[in-house]
Amino acid sequence: MFRYGRIGLVLLLFAAASAQAFTVDELIARNVKARGGLEKIRAIQSLRTSGRMFVGDGGSSLELTYAQMIKRPGLIRQEAGMQGLTSVSAYDGAVGWQIQPFGGRLDPEKLSADDLKGYKLLADLDGPLVDYETKGHKVEYLGTEDVDGTDAHKLRVTLKDGDVVFIYLDPDYFLQIRMIVQFKIRGTEFVEEDDLGNYERVDGVMLPFSIESGPKGQAKTTKITIEKAEINGAMDAKLFHYPAPPAAAGK
Questions:
Q1: Count of other CB atoms within 10 angstroms of residue 10
Q2: C-alpha distances in angstroms, 113 versus 96, 119, 126, 188?
Q3: 92: CB partners within 8 A, 6+ apart
Q4: Looking only at Cα atoms, what is the longest distance across the chain?
Q5: pTM over 0.90
Q6: Per-residue pLDDT tens over the stretch 84-109
Q7: Which residues 6+ apart lie within 8 Å of 212 measured at CB?
Q8: Structural domains in the chain plus CATH codes
């Protein structure tokens, strides 16, 4: 009995280990397939999502309108509005800028290279895993880690510039359920944790319709609920460019 039990335990452990024996490229391939396949992902030339943003803790959160526009190659614009005011953050592939009326700044101001790191990551419609070697990134598989009760596959992506992103994939569907970004901004390490869920299929591609964000290890203080997503709709490139100064009044 003892011998049989030990052999059975060995076989059980071997089966469990085999179930988790993925390579980086196998996990990325499963993720790409789950999202809709490489052909459909690369066919996305623009993506517009809109909905609601809730900022603050549950008892005193503010509700804002929310919109995000992404266009190849690497252009992004985000808007958040409340009480007739709209904040704008944008990047046109070369210059990043923002308008923050809630802080009393009505004129556009340019963003620093450090401030642009997050926008560049979001502006990649394919995501950092697709063609990661061509992009100059490095990806490592770190095994599984608990994400709110789910044994998620953990990938560490070292970006070309040296910053790090951790991506967690659901073990059943291989869709991304958490992302942790570690950026250095003006010499200080910035670590944010984003939880993604409520995936829906839009034109054959799976997109998250719920995003909750906050500093790693703390409560999520920002929640975005997507109400509409449009792929390859008309999108004027001027939306992303730094606004031109108003023309001088005629004499």
A1: 10
A2: 8, 10, 22, 14
A3: 75, 237, 240, 241, 242
A4: 102
A5: no
A6: 999 999 999 999 999 999 878 889 99
A7: 194, 195, 220, 222, 223, 224
A8: 22-240 (2.50.20.10)
